[in-house]
Amino acid sequence: MAPAQTTREGLWERFERRTQHGDAIFWGITLFFALIVIGLVVAIGVVIFNDSALAREKFGWGFLLGTDWSPIDTDIAPASFGAWPAIRGTLFSAGIAVVLAAPIAVGIGIFLAELCPVQLRTPLSFMVELLAAIPSVIFGVWGVIVFVPFFTTYIATPISDTLGESIPWLAGPVATGRGIIVAGCVLAIMILPTIAAITRDVLSLVPNTQREVLLAMGATRWEVIWQAVIPYSRAGIIGGIMLGLGRALGETIAATMLIGNSTRIEDSLFAPGVTAASLIANELTNVNGPLHQSALVSIALVLFAITFALNLIARLLIWYVNRGAAQGGRS
Amino acid sequence: MSILSSAPANYGQRKIVDYIMRGLTIVATLIAIVPLVLIIGYVTVIGGGAMSIDFFTKTYEPPAMSDGGFSLPSNAVTLPTPDPAVPVDPNATPDPFAGIDLGGATGVTPVDGTQKGEALSAKAQGGVLHAIIGTLLITGAALLFSLPIGILAAVFLAEYPSNTIATVVRFCTDLLSGAPSIIVGVTAYILIVVPFREFSGVAGAIALTFLMVPTITRTTEEVLKLVPESTREAALAMGAPTWYSTFTVVIPAAISGIVTGVMLAFARGAGETAPLILTVLGSNVISFNLLQPIAALPLITYRYTESPFPGENTQAWGSAFILMMLVLVVNIAVRLATRNRLSGR
């Protein structure tokens, strides 16, 4: 491995000297594997874009708002594909999850970054991260066996018996227990750690001068957090919530096991629904013909586009906060 | 004294708000801990109860085969054969089910239902050895695919950090780790399962590769960046080219961190279910052939959770327990290892 000494230098030797250390080759090889990572994303995009062509040509943009999803083709009722049940179920369940999880998760982030005693910080952070590491199928099993019966008996039935009389989207029946709202609750648990971890990280980037100024003015700890720390890191927290939303939108197994998998559109949030991911998981492996498959892949394309946009915006927001912190630290 | 007297009039009220809001953040943290404890507790109690030697050494056995639960009862229905001598009267509408004991035919006594209960309480003998083997094979193959991609891409990001390609690669890893796992499953399904007309372990491994690469790349890049620049410069000053210093100095210095990332990626991949539904399909026998459908632990958990047979439920919870233990052990081991390394410095 000892590099040879070059005494005379011709054109060929010069080329050899440039490449003999192997750094150019090394650069090329690592670049190749870095490009593979980009290639993976491109492969996903190209495959689902190509394979959804049939449905996109046939249905156009109306596909997104079509309310009827009945893949079985009979003489009486021809097959029809509309993505709205799946999109609606996805948006509702993920929306419920974010509404439930965001305040709690931001609270956790604030506690971990600002208020927690130092000895507790590491174990608590670890436990929150552990919640993120548990496979989603375990959330699904737990939801089916433990959470659904509990939720049906103590929350869903009382609410639908009282409020449900007057508010249609809280109406019963809640017989099976599976439904959009149950899926939303379990999804909320699943996205808690995502939002909490990012909130904690962006809060710890806030320069101490921000806190010290308000403390010197005689503010309480909460006033420091509310008036100095959170405004400074607001964009990052919103970015974290968007990443959580992205995870809730794309979560498959727990949603499939909990949402009830019905493509009928019903008013009540207690009624079973379907999400884009769970519809694909249920139907893609046994499709009725190419149009059915293409329609399912189109739904995957919509899902991919949404998560792509969410990730892009969220990363930009978090990057914006990081850059601000870097500049603030320097000045 | 002057400080106290200069306190604003609403100080008490502000203090109360302060206490309430700080209390609420503690409550929020507890709310996150409660489901964690509940989930780990339930899976440990129910799934841990399924653990036995058989569970790790046997494969799937259909429920209730041992006591012949599915054979027809001896008093099975024999439909009355029409007497050819008597002409069939089309206008007569006799009850076709008259005199047939339907309860006897199905093995269920409609009144008390005790027989049904007995049939359902039959335990499935057997274990999940086939699924453990399948999960290890699929995830191992995925690791084989994703290790070179992840680590060499991370080397690129760490050694040539600020150019357009590096930025795009970083965004792509973020996107892949945030992409719904079902999308990856759809991609692998269309790319591999549909053309070859066969569900296969390889298709599952390729799908998992999409999900494991970002984890490996990001953690490896982070650790490689932690290696001090002076270490690199020392190697360069000795006359080593960049690639030589990377492979003999930088990567060995960061190897424990890289192993950490790989273990986390393995744990993540082993627990993924959605891509496997579309690619691997599952199986009930031991198979080492990655070109055919193969069993996997998460698939057992997913399929058998709501099975009417308690024996299969036991398999579901037991598989969930094994998966959760894998995740817990890996995470705790990683935590302990990194803490030792940090405190050692």
Task: Describe the model.
The complex is a heterodimer of chains A (331) and B (345). With 331 residues, chain A is an all-alpha fold. Chain A is 73% helix and 0% strand. Chain A is built from 12 helices and no strands. In chain A, helix 11 (276-283) runs antiparallel to helix 12. Chain A is flat, with a radius of gyration of 26 Å. The mean pLDDT of chain A is 86. With 345 residues, chain B is mainly α. Chain B has 2 domains: 73-121, no CATH class; 129-344, MetI-like (MetI-like fold, Orthogonal Bundle), CATH 1.10.3720.10. Chain B has helices at residues 2-5, 11-49, 53-57, 102-106, 114-120, 129-159, 164-178, 181-196, 201-226, 229-237, 242-253, 255-271, 274-279, 297-304, 310-344. In chain B, helix 7 (164-178) crosses helix 9 (201-226) and helix 9 packs antiparallel against helix 12 (255-271). The interface between A and B is large, with 93 and 94 residues.
User: What characterizes the major β-sheet of chain B?
Assistant: none
Indicate the CATH architecture of the largest domain in chain B.
Orthogonal Bundle
Overall number of structural domains of chain B: 2
Please report the distance between the alpha carbons of the first and last residues of chain B.
48 Å
Q: How does the overall form of chain A come out from the CA principal axes?
A: flat
Which stretches of chain A are poorly predicted, pLDDT < 50 over at least 5 residues? none
**What fraction of the residues of chain B are assigned to beta strands by DSSP?**
under 5%
The assigned structural class of chain A equals mainly alpha
Helix content of chain A: over 70%
Number of strands of chain B: 0
User: How many H/I helical runs of chain A?
Assistant: 12
Write the H/E string of chain A, N to C: HHHHHHHHHHHH
Largest sheet of chain A: none
Mean pLDDT of chain B: 80
Strand content range of chain A: under 5%
CATH class group of chain A: Mainly Alpha
- The ordered H/E elements of chain B are HHHHHHHHHHHHHHH
